[in-house]
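Record type: monomer structure entry
Structure origin: computed from sequence
Chain ID: A
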Amino acid sequence: MKTEPSETGGAFSGWTTRRWLRVGVATTLAVLAVLGALGGWAMWRTSQVTADLVDRRSPALMDAMRLEQALVNQETGIRGYGLSGRSDFLQPYAQGVSGERTALEHLRPLVRGDARAGADLADVERLAGTWQEHIARPVSAASPGNAVRLATERATQGKADFDSLRRAMTRQQAHLESERRTATRELRHTVALRDWMFAVIGGVIVLVAALVFEGLRRGVTGPISRLGTATRDVTQGRFDRSLEGTGPADLRRLAADVESMRRRLVEELHFTEEARRLLDEQARDLKRSNTELEQFAYVASHDLQEPLRKVSSFTQLLQRRYGGRLDEKADQYIAFAVDGANRMQTLINDLLAFSRVGRVHNDHRRVDLEVVLSQALDDLSVAVEETGAEITHDPLPTVFGDMTQLGMLWQNLLSNAIKFRSPDRPPRIHISAVREEDTWEFAVGDNGIGIAAEFHEKVFTIFQRLHTKDAYPGTGIGLAMCKKVVEFHGGRIRIDPDCSSGTRVVLTLPAAEDRPVSSQKATRP
């Protein structure tokens, strides 16, 4: 099989799919981790700048403006009280003092850590304290008459102190506004950086996904798809197509194994085709030989009938005409000739019947075995009467087969059971029938002399006899014919090895639709 090095180059040709996947997954996770870290940093930076602007810079500027408003209210109240001596002008002053205190409480934490903002706030507090010490507190604590006089005396100093305070507050707010604008610009920059970073992250993720997909296509799915296509072509009969392996090392090894299997299959296929060709030739030869043998047996039996009848007729004629006129030796010879002719006639008839099984009688239909058994008993009525045989049977079903051949089957089985009976008791024969799925199992049991276990197979061979012709007459074809009939119907026949008394022949036949029949006892006294 032709194999290619890995498409990634010779340095990585030994890498397996698992190693490629591990390296790819590790690289992808590393890239994603870096991208995630960058994205997290961008989010953290954006959040930090936003918090600095929202929670510190803007509130600091607003509190500085509130502080200025509170001090302006104080100055307005003190100036009004100093000019008019009216106590109601002290209300704005009191509100300004409270507003100053609140604004300072909020502002001091916000400027902590900012040297310039802290210096600005300290300057404002110092100047405010100077103005309050020189003007605000003395005027507010004086009586209305003294307040007017004191305010008039310190008007110039008060104006100078408050102008210095106003310039300090303006400078403070300018610095805070500048810092807020700087924070705003930094926030915009950070948001833009975050957006660009997420766009880059998205692009890198798409690129990594595309690279992973392309890598899997080139290194895994592509080689597997090509190997699968080639394998399907082989399974569809294109055994001449070689399988080429590409991609990682394990996929190339897999392709090499499949290619080796294809070559083995090709070799096995060639061997099988050659064996089938030889088997077909042998089957044709065997079929021709069987046909010739059957034809020979049929023709031979027919051709032997006429000369055998002549021999039998003339020997019987000699026996009738000259019996008792010749010496004892001549009468014995004539008897031998007559007996031999009769046995030859019986053998030829049995051989002719054996050759006809499956060739002459082949009319399969539904056969009622009750009718077949009744006909067989009628044919054996003389033997049944002479031996006192008692034949019983279970309700017999309807099977599918040839009626003539099934009649020969039952007649041979029953005649054997009667023939090989025990000399000290009359024959007792029972036929049982049991349904097993789509077949019927029959058993013909008797109380005869039985068959030794070593002859259970031999008795079904043609011309095989276990006894001499003087003890039990016959040609040795009966059970061989039974086996041929049963196998022709697709069944099996055997001797039951568990039968300890007599003989039990078990056979199977294909079932047909049953009809209800009653159990009966067929007996010939």
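Annotation 1: The two ends are 83 Å apart (CA to CA).
Annotation 2: Strands lie at 364-368, 390-393, 398-402, 428-436, 439-445, 493-495, 504-510, 520-523.
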